[in-house]
Amino acid sequence: MGPYTMNSDSLYVNGYHEKPVPYPPAQSYPLNFTITNLKFIQDLTKPDSQKYKYVEATIITLMDNLFKSSEVSNSYQGCRIVRFGSQQDGNDTTVNALCDFKSESSETAINKVKVYEVFKNATQNLKNLGPYNLDKDSLYVKDYTERDSSLPIPTTTPTTTSPPIAISPSDMVFDLNFTITNRNYSPGMLDDTNSPLYKEIQANVTAMLAALYKNSTVGNNYKYCIVTGLKLGSVKVSCDCFFKPTDEIKTLDSDIIRDTFAKGTNNTYLLGGMYNLQRDSLSVKDTTVVIVPPQPKEEFPFWAIIIIVLGIMFILFLIFLLCFLLAMVRQRRRKDSYQVMQAPHGLYFPHLR
C-alpha cells in the first residue's frame, strides 16, 4: 500500500476476515545434461575453484534467461548446480542441476514433461545452451527423457577461435571494446592468455559476436572477430572484427557496427544471453590492417635451366682443356731442359765397348 508493506493476514472489516490462501511449496526438478565442448578438469569438482565458479555462474545465467523468457516464467523460481561430472573419458562434462518451480492449482500445470519441452525448445532441439554444445540424447528431467536409443551417440567437435579466413586488402576492420559487468576476477587471473579461464571467455565472446553479426543486416559482410585482450574491471574486452564488401553493402562504418552490436545486445545490455554489459562501455573505431603482399615465386622456365646446365658443362670443359694444355707445355719445357753430351772426337771409353 504505497510505500508501506502490509501483513496479508491483518485485514478485518466489521469482524469479517479471510484467511490468506497459503502458497503451495515449490516443486524441484533434477535436470541433467551433457556439454560436449567443455572438457572436464578436476577443478570442476572443487566448488571453491575459479573454474567451477565461472562455469557455474555461466550455466545458471543461461538457464535463468531460458526459463524466464519461456511460458513457465511465472512459475520459475531458480536453478542451482548440484555437481559437474565427467563423461567420454573426460572430453565431455555432465551437469546436474536442480530447478525450482511454484506449484499451481493444477497438478499438471508444471511437470517434468513441460520442463523438458521448454528446455528442449529453447536450446534449438537440444543443440546449444549459449556457447555450449549439448549432447541431444543426454537431457533428463527427473527420470523423464525422450532419447531415441536407435540414434548414434554424438561425437564432440572441437571448436577453434582462430580465424580460418585470410585477410584481404579490401576488408573493413573495426576495433570493438565493451565491458562485462557480471564477471569479477582477482588481479592476475586474466594475465595468462593460455589459461583455461582466458580461453573460455575468449571462445564464448567470439562465438557470441559471430552469432550476433551473422544474424544481422550485415551478416553477409561479416567474416570473423578476434578477441585481442581481456582486462579486469570487471572484464574489459577488446576485439578486432573483420567485414568484407558485398554487392549489397560495399562499405561499412563504425556507426553501423556500433548500432548493430547495440541492437543485438538489447541496447548494450546482454551479450549471448550470458554476459551483462556496461551500457556506456561500447566503443567502435575504424582500424587499418597493414597487409604485406606475398612475394611472387620466381621460377625459371625449363629451357633456361637447360641453357644453364649446358653453360656449366661448357665452362667445365674449358677448364679441363686449359689444364690439359698447361700440363703439355710443362712437360715439353722439362724435356728441353736436358741435353745429351756427345763424346769428344778420338776419345775412347773402354766401358762403352
Mind sketching the topology for me?
Blueprint: E1 26-35, H1 50-68, E2 76-87, E3 92-102, H2 112-122, E4 128-129, E5 132-133, E6 140-141, E7 172-180, H3 196-214, E8 222-232, E9 235-243, H4 254-264, E10 270-271, E11 275-276, E12 283-287, H5 302-336
Antiparallel strand pairs: 1-3, 1-6, 2-3, 4-5, 7-9, 7-12, 8-9, 10-11
Descriptive notes:
The protein contains five helices and twelve strands. The protein has helices at 50-68, 112-122, 196-214, 254-264, 302-336; strands at residues 26-35, 76-87, 92-102, 128-129, 132-133, 140-141, 172-180, 222-232, 235-243, 270-271, 275-276, 283-287. It has a four-stranded antiparallel β-sheet. Strands 8-9-7-12 form a four-stranded antiparallel β-sheet, with helices on one face. Mean pLDDT is 80; it is low at 149-163.
